[in-house]
Amino acid sequence: MIPVLVGPTASGKTAVAHAVARLADVDIIAADSRTIYRGLDIGTAKPSAAERAAFRYHGLDLVEPQERYAAGRFARDAACWLQVALVAGRLPLVVGGTGFYLRALFEGLFDEPPLDDDRRERLQVVLRRLPAEERLRWVHRLDAGYTGGRNAQRSSRALEVALLTGRSLSALQRAAPTPGAAPARYFRIEVPRGVLHERIAQRGAEMLRAGLLDEVRAALDRGVPQDAPGLTGVGYREAVLHLEGKLPAAQLEQAIVQATRQYAKRQETWFRHQLPAGTEVLDGTLSPDVLASQLLSGYRAATCG
């Protein structure tokens, strides 16, 4: 059984994971669809260089911002990281807020049919021209079981599969799941809405002070397209709009904060409805050290009981 720490953005997952690692010999496996991108550190709240030197991490800086990294690929990579930790006698701790990554790792995914690269590229040219609302309208018409929300990468993927295979992505997932890597014991950090909003506002301001705009400029200067997967995330999307002259500087911080709050709400909804019964809820207003002790105690009770 693998301990898994989840919660919305700004709930304090990283601090709790580090506190756990100070109490036990742990490998931290990041299950985050944003921290996978190289060179995008500030807007993803990636652990600092000092933290990464102090703690054993997997799942960071895996691909360039213009590359796709699907949940199935994460599941395969993470299964290897789990094995590395277990063989070495260490405890793997999966930490993240990307529900589809967690589902892929612990519940398994379908065997995806091969898609012709040339047809995919031509289709993507068309999809990039579609307004977001129009793309979502087509997704819901072609895939009634779609649950990816407004995420551009997920909606494009659902359209790719539906149009190039003739079957919906959700139907394929239901029909032929592959086994997950291991059973999981979930711990969910819950933070009162007002407290979480304050933390999100503080993080948004800190990211801008730390140089988020310079980070985005550097990515664009080295040839990363404005619509690259890595730049579609919260914070980056707003920064790109500002640099394009479409979002005034006076509105930038609030736009990032508002988008982050909406993202956190979607995460909370997913965790409440998709995690298994028996998930232990941790009070996010307590200190990371207290939560780390509670997590380890709950995990040991579950594995030894």
List the helices and strands and how they pair.
Blueprint: E1 2-6, H1 13-23, E2 26-31, H2 49-54, E3 56-58, H3 71-87, E4 91-96, H4 99-107, H5 117-129, H6 132-142, H7 152-165, H8 169-175, E5 184-190, H9 193-210, H10 212-221, H11 236-243, H12 249-274, E6 280-283, H13 288-304
Parallel strand pairs: 1-4, 1-5, 2-3, 2-4, 5-6
Helix pairs in contact: 1-13, 3-4, 6-7, 9-12, 10-11
- Name the CATH class of the largest domain: Alpha Beta
Alpha plus pi helix count: 13
Computed over alpha carbons, the radius of gyration is 19 Å
β-strand amount: 5-15%
> Which CATH architecture of the largest domain?
3-Layer(aba) Sandwich
CATH topology of the largest domain, what is it called? Rossmann fold
Widest beta sheet: strand line-up = 3-2-4-1-5-6
CATH superfamily of the largest domain: P-loop containing nucleotide triphosphate hydrolases
Number of strands: 6
Secondary-structure-based class equals alpha/beta
Approximate shape: globular
Low-pLDDT runs: none
Q: How many domain units?
A: 2
Amino-to-carboxy terminus distance: 12 Å
Q: Mean pLDDT, rounded to whole units?
A: 91
